[in-house]
Specification:
The complex is a heterodimer.
Chain A lengths: L13 H14 L26 H15 L5 H5 L6 H12 L1
Helix pairs in contact in A: 1-2, 1-4
Chain B lengths: L31 H5 L3 H22 L7 E4 L4 H13 L4 E6 L6 H14 L2 E5 L3 H13 L13 H20 L4 E3 L13 E5 H19 L3 H5 L3 H6 L4 E5 L2 H4 L3 H9 L19 H12 L5 H9 L5 H8 L5 H10 L8
Parallel strand pairs in B: 1-2, 1-4, 2-3, 4-6
Antiparallel strand pairs in B: 5-6
Helix pairs in contact in B: 3-4, 3-11, 5-6, 13-14
Classes of the chains: A mainly alpha, B alpha/beta.
Amino acid sequence: MKNSDLATDTRGMDGQMDEKIRQYLAETLLIEFGDAPGATSEDENLFESGLIDSFGFVQLVSFLEKTFDIKISDDEVMSDSLSTYAKIRSFVEAKVA
Amino acid sequence: MTAAATDIRLCTRCVLPSTFPGISFDAAGLCSMCQDAPPVPEFEKIRGELRSRLEAVFDANRGKAEYDVVVAFSGGKDSSYTLMTLTRKYGLKCLAVTIDNGFIAEQAQKNLRAVTSSLGIDFMLFTPAPVFMNNLYKTSATQQVHTKAALTRASSMCNSCINLINNHMVKLAIEKSVPIIAGGYIGGQVPKDSVIMQMDLDVQARFRSEAIKRYLKNFGPDAEGYFGMNEEMVKRSPLRKINIVNPMLAFGVSEDQIIEEISELGWRKTADTGSNSTNCLLNDLGIAVHYKQHQFNPYVNEIAEQVRTGLMSREEAIHKVQDIPDFSRVERQARAIGLDWNEV
C-alpha cells in the first residue's frame, strides 16, 4: 500500500486505523511489533527503548495529524500519550471517536 | 571503489536499492517512495509553498535578537549556500557556527573563512576535545547508538556528530535568545517535514533526557557536556520555542548551481573528502563502515531524493551511490580514531 492511500477517512474503522499506525511505524520508523526475537511489544516505551528519537517523534505527530485529521496539542505532546504503540492506538481512537 | 553487489536491485526511477530498510518494489521496479512521489514538475510548486512558509517565519522573527539566525555552518557546499541565501536574499543577520571535529579538510577550513568574510558576518568556531570526538566516532562505528530510521539518513558516525552539532546550536540559540536555527540539510538527510519545525524547549528536554542516557552509556561521562544542556538556563530562557529550518529543502537548486553561486564567495571544492562530502575527511570512513554493516550507501536516501525531485540525473546518482570506499582508502582515517576494521 502506498502512503497516499492512507489519507482516507478512518473514523470508526478501528482495524484499519490499527493497521495504518502499525504500517507507518514499520515502514517509516522501522519498528516491528510482534513476538519474534528482537521485535517490539505493544507496551514497550518507544523513547526509553531508543526506537524513536526527536526527529521520529516529529514525523509521528505529523503523520497522525494528517492521516487521522486530528490536532495534537502541545500538552498532549508533552504527556505520556504517545510513548507506546498501545497508547498511540488508544489516543487516536479517542481523538477520532 | 568497491563494486556494488550485482544482486542488489535499484529502483528504476531513483536509485534506492533493495537493501534499503522498509523499501518494496512494484512490478515495474518502482520503489515504494517513488510510487508515493509526485511527478518532477510538481516539486517546484511544493517548494514554492515551502518558501512562502519560510519567508513568513523569517518576517515574524527578523530583528528580535542580537542575531536572527544561528546557522550550523560546516563549510560544505550546502551550508555555505544556505548562509549566503539567508544573508543576501532574506536579509537575515546570521551567526555562522562551525564545530571543528578535527577532520575538516584544509580547503574546507579556507572556505569557512572565505564565505563568512565575503558575506561580512560573524563566525564562531567550537572545537570539542579530540579525544572525545575520536571515541565518539569509534564507538559509533562499532556500537548500536542510533535508531534504525536515523541510519537510513546518515551513517552512525555522522548521526553522532550531527546530534552533537544540533545540541550545540540549540545551546547557543538559547544563550543568545536567537529564534531561528538553520541547517544546510537537503532532501533525504532529514525527514520531509523538516523545512520548518517548531521545537518546544520543554518537549526537547524530554527527548534530551532519554538521549543523554544513551550517549553517556556509549560515549562516557563527558557526553553530558556535549549532548546535555543547562536545564536552569533552558527554564529561564524567554524563548519557549525555537524555529528549526532547513531552507535547502525549499530552494530546489542542483549541486552545479550551488557550486557556481558560492564560488563567487571564494568557496572552492575539496579534493580529499570523497564524492559525497565537501568538508569532512572522515566521511568516506563513515560510508565504508555503514556499507559493511547495512549494505547500502548512507547517502543513498538523499541522492535518491535529488533524482526524484529532478535535481540530479540518475546516471550521476548511480555513480555516487556505487562509490563505496574500500578499506585501503579509509585506513588512515580509521587509524586516526583508533578503529580496527575487524571490530566493525
